[in-house]
Design brief:
With about 400 residues, the chain is of the alpha/beta class. The protein folds into two domains: about 210 residues, Alpha/Beta hydrolase fold, catalytic domain (Rossmann fold), CATH 3.40.50.1820; about 100 residues, no CATH class. It is built from twelve helices and 14 strands. Strand 3 and strand 4 form a beta hairpin.
């Protein structure tokens, strides 16, 4: 049986047991993007029209459209901006000593009296960038960026001592208190989504809403997929230089073999391993290769922090007590309004993790970008991230 709805042909079992909203392509530049949204409500499209929500059943599709729903949704969800905001500069910045060893860099931009939002960067070890500010309306948001331990401008650089997930969660709280913020919105992608989930589960009363991208739950199967040969089937050309740095007799665990080299007493050995590790990730982070991103792998300072800290966390499985720790604790944050944005062809953090999170947490909106990989800077992902912040802004204004 086939059913054609709104001009789109769907198999009756294509989306079994999932609420499906069909969203038209979103144009943010010369590129266009399309997404699937899994939720129980109408989702605003780029044109401002409401999208019909369908529920997949084993016997076909059942429409959830009811009389009056369109009018209600028009009131609830206006047309959201999906364009990145212009570049801005911080209005304040500084360094916060969070332990006897570590000092973290922080900055604030946007509206000093606006709604606070904290940006949690990826990696771990990736650090922040000025472009991270552009996902947020600077008239509404008080935008807080900080570099996690050992990353970016934080010191000491690439340091692994006292550098765990729980240390970072403590740092986030110390920064919140230092800036005298009672509660804030949390935004994180890739490893930033891992940290956002862990932080919000530890301090659910401090989080007003979340926007997550490229879900990474730091489970063994996710690490094995990307670092032990799974993703090599899609990027064999990028994989071979990463593989070939390691002798055949040590290839039983690339994560362990790289860990040995990234912690070598020989700095040149460290740098060589860091470049190879970082280049592998940068070459796979976009649906289409991005040369500017790939060049980051040639920066020894960036690569050393990025590779050493990532490897440190992965060897230690995120310092979580169990493989499914984040999924097992979803009940603590089920009430937090959250949007999850996931590229369909994300090789670094494949969609299986976002889907597992969606099944454990169906109350969160899942936006699947059909023509995107991992990077937050891909047009379709960037558009949905901005729109997700706009939605939380709209909710906050109406509260």
């Amino acid at each position: 049986m086939r059913l054609s709805i709104l001009g789109i042909a769907l198999s009756s079992n294509s989306y079994y047991c999932a609420s499906l909203s069909l969203i038209p392509p979103i144009s943010t530049s010369s590129s266009s993007s399309s997404s699937l949204s899994f939720s129980k409500k109408f989702t605003p499209s780029a044109s401002g029209k409401r999208n019909l929500v369908l529920r997949g059943q084993s016997v076909g599709f059942e429409s959830e459209l009811k009389p009056g729903d369109l009018m209600e949704s028009e009131k609830e969800f206006p047309e959201f901006n999906r364009n990145l905001y212009p570049s801005i500069e911080p209005y304040s910045s500084g360094f916060l000593k969070v332990s006897d060893i570590h000092t973290i860099y922080w900055e604030q931009s946007g509206n000093p009296n606006g709604h606070p939002v904290v940006f949690l960067h990826g990696g771990p070890g990736g650090g922040t960038a000025p472009s991270n500010r552009k996902f947020f309306d600077p008239d509404f948001y008080r935008i807080i960026l900080f570099d996690q331990r050992g990353a970016g401008k934080s010191t000491p650089h690439a340091c692994l001592v006292e550098n765990t997930t729980w240390d970072l969660i403590s740092d986030i709280e110390k920064l919140r208190e230092h800036l005298e913020i009672p509660e804030w919105q949390v935004f994180g992608g890739s490893w930033g989504s891992t940290l956002a989930l862990a932080y919000s589960q530890s301090h659910p009363d401090k989080v007003t809403g979340m926007v997550l991208r490229g879900i990474f739950l730091l489970r063994k199967k996710e690490i094995d997929w990307f670092y032990e040969g799974g993703a090599a089937s899609i990027f064999p050309d990028a994989w071979e230089p990463f593989r070939d740095l390691i002798p055949e007799n040590e290839r039983g665990s690339f994560v362990d073999a790289y860990g040995k080299r990234l912690n070598s007493d020989d700095q040149e050995v460290q740098y060589a391993a860091a470049r190879a590790w970082t280049m592998w990730e940068m070459m796979t982070a976009h649906l289409f290769p991005n040369n500017d991103n790939i060049k980051r792998g040639e920066d020894d300072k960036f690569s050393l922090a990025f590779a050493r800290i990532e490897n440190h966390y992965f060897v230690n499985r995120g310092f979580f007590p169990s493989d499914g720790f984040l999924l097992d604790n979803i009940d603590k944050i089920r009430h937090i309004k959250t949007t999850v944005v996931q590229g369909r062809y994300d090789v670094c953090c494949p969609m299986m993790s976002a889907w597992d999170l969606h099944k454990a947490w169906p109350e969160a909106d899942l936006k699947v970008i059909q023509d995107a990989g991992h990077s937050a800077n891909e047009p379709g992902i960037a558009a949905e991230l901005v729109a997700a912040n706009e939605k939380l802004k709209h909710i906050k204004k109406g509260a």
